[in-house]
Design a protein that fits this description.
Domain CHCH: 57-93
CATH topology of the domain at 51-99: Helix Hairpins
Number of helices: 4
Oligomer: single chain
Largest sheet: none
Structural class: mainly alpha
Region (Disordered): 1-32, 95-129
CATH class of the domain at 51-99: Mainly Alpha
Subcellular location: Mitochondrion intermembrane space
Protein name: MIA40 protein
Number of strands: 0
Keywords: Disulfide bond, Mitochondrion, Oxidoreductase, Protein transport, Redox-active center, Translocation, Transport
Strand content: under 5%
Length: 129
Amino acid sequence: GKDRIIFATKEDHETPSSAELVEDDPDDPYEEQGLILPNGDINWNCPCLGGMASGPCGEQFKSAFSCFHYSTEEIKGSDCVDQFRAMQECMQKYPDLYPQEDENEEKSSKDLEATSVEASAAKEEKGSS
């Protein structure tokens, strides 16, 4: 796909480069746009996606992310469970590329989240009395 291998000889390196730098195109729709383009479309070239859109599970990622982005459900993305499940199943086939969160880490972050929610609720109760 996206990569191209070029072999250079010693002679290639001895001659000055004829490459010309092209000035940035102000009309390039992907340049400095972020995740969402001005027209509301997803910018699959955004570095913020970390290559997820082009990896071995890129199509599943695009399907799930598109579904979520365009979801109009009351609970956004609740209609995308099948797409996210397909993406997760694909990612589990490539554990080196998509490391799974350690069970202990996941548990401790949920515990931490629950603790902070409980602490917030306790503060609110004290403040309202």
